[in-house]
Amino acid sequence: MSHKKDTLWAAPPHTVAKITMLRKYLRVWFEILGRRANGRDVWYIDGFAGPGEYTDYPDGSPIAAIKAGDDALKVLGSMVGAIHCVFIEEDRRRFANLQGRLDRESTNAKIRRYPILGTFVHGMTDVRKLAGNPFDSNAPTFAFLDPFGPEGLPFALVRELLALPGCEVLVNVDSDGIGRIYRAGGWANHRVLLNEAFGDSSWERELEGVAQLPVAIMKIVNLYKRKLRTLVPYAYTFEMRGRGGAFDYHLAFASQHHLGLEKMKEVMKQIDQTGAYCFSDANVNQHILFREDDLPTYADQTARHFAGQRVSWKETNDYALNETIFTNARKVLAFLEKVGRIDVTAPNYPQRKRFTFPDESHPGMYIHFTA
After folding, report:
1. Which of 60, 62, 76, 68 lies closest to 26, judged by CA?
2. Would the pTM of this model clear 0.90, i.e. be above it?
3. What is the per-residue DSSP string for 179-216?
4. Residue-by-residue DSSP string for 34-79
5. d(CA 252, CA 25)
6. Which of 4, 14, 43, 57 is deepest in the core (most CB within 10 A)?
7. Which CATH number is associated with domain 13-281?
8. Per-residue pLDDT tens over the stretch 117-129
9. What is the rounded average pLDDT of the residues 54-63?
10. β-sheet bridge partners, residue 254
């Protein structure tokens, strides 16, 4: 990135979109956790915090997080404990600017701020020394990991974060940068860097024989998603593209709870509809996210995945959430029932009408997919 050595730089459209998305989601996340946490503290960790502002935009991700916390606390009152915000930045000039920007931001006394100078790796060591830190308290935690490039973000630390029972992560996966390192080979010390990025050597089999960068990029992001799914039940990757359709980068979101991914998709949809940016479903077919006219495509994908199986509503719902544009399986299953590719049994829900699907609170419903 050309701006890596600058203290401040102009925010490109994808950065503004990302910060807007982060603030919208964190506001929802803080409110949901506040209502469920019964006065417990919650934590936000910004692993690559930056200077806190841009030359043409006032709020970096740390300020977006603080403002989201302020907004949530106005609604929650005493329902939530403290909101602990950790901001890790390794560049001294950007760190100094961040401190100055934080000093100019008035906040609710319940928002505790911890600027840490250092790399993400060293900063996470310092986080473990903070009183009540999530590794000691299992407090609900959201980690935003947005590095400048493919280095400095070990998958081992992502794994440690997602081992926390209430943790979610949003990761900027520099699939293009990783792909270029792979193609450069030994000149780029690729084995060390890629083993760190993926936590093991699984990338070797995934990328073996791949010569074209676009193919490598998609294999990289799909591998990263699969590795997240070994840690948590819900993960999705979004491909960010500008208005002209040019690829920018991938975002990977991972959560322990289906509600997290549902809400993240809802926030993405809100931003996507502004027309300034779009989020694509990061799979090999490259369907634009939130285009419901893609329903037949995703219905066919689902039917082929479960062909010949009898599965529960939850299994199909989880598949829709993790592998399609939708937040649940209802539209996909309704389409498949209409075209005769599934049969439904719901003995505990005798009043069910065809093409409608109760949620998982109605047990005993099974979907029979044709072979």
Report:
1. 68
2. yes
3. HHHHHHGGGGTHHHHHHHHHSSSHHHHHHTT---HHHH
4. HHHTTT--EEEEETT-TTS--SS-S--HHHHHHHHHHHHHHHHGGG
5. 14
6. 43
7. 3.40.50
8. 999 999 999 999 9
9. 96
10. 169, 235
- Reading the block at residue 297, the tokens are 């495509």
The Cα 17–Cα 277 span in angstroms is 7
335-364 pLDDT, tens digit per residue, is 999 999 999 998 877 788 899 886 655 678
Tokens of 285: 């077919």
pLDDT tens figures, 130-170: 999 999 999 999 999 999 888 999 999 999 999 999 899 99
Q: Find the largest Cα–Cα distance for the chain.
A: 66
Cα distance between residue 157 and residue 184, in whole Å: 25
- Residue that is written with structure tokens 């010390």 in the block: 189
> What would the two tokens of residue 327 be?
């937040």
* Cβ neighbours, 10 Å, residue 246: 9
- Of residues 310 and 284, more confidently modeled: 310
**Rounded to an integer, what distance in angstroms lies between the CA atom of residue 11 and that of residue 145?**
17
Tell me: the pLDDT tens digits for 301-332?
999 999 999 999 889 999 999 999 899 999 99
Q: pLDDT-based confidence at 3, cuts 50/70/90?
A: very low
> Distance between CA 365 and CA 311 in Å, rounded?
9
Contact of 145 with 87, CB cutoff 8 Å: no
Burial pattern 293-307, b for ≥16 Cβ within 10 A else e, equals ebbeebbebbbeebe
For the chain, the structural domain boundaries read 13-281, 292-369
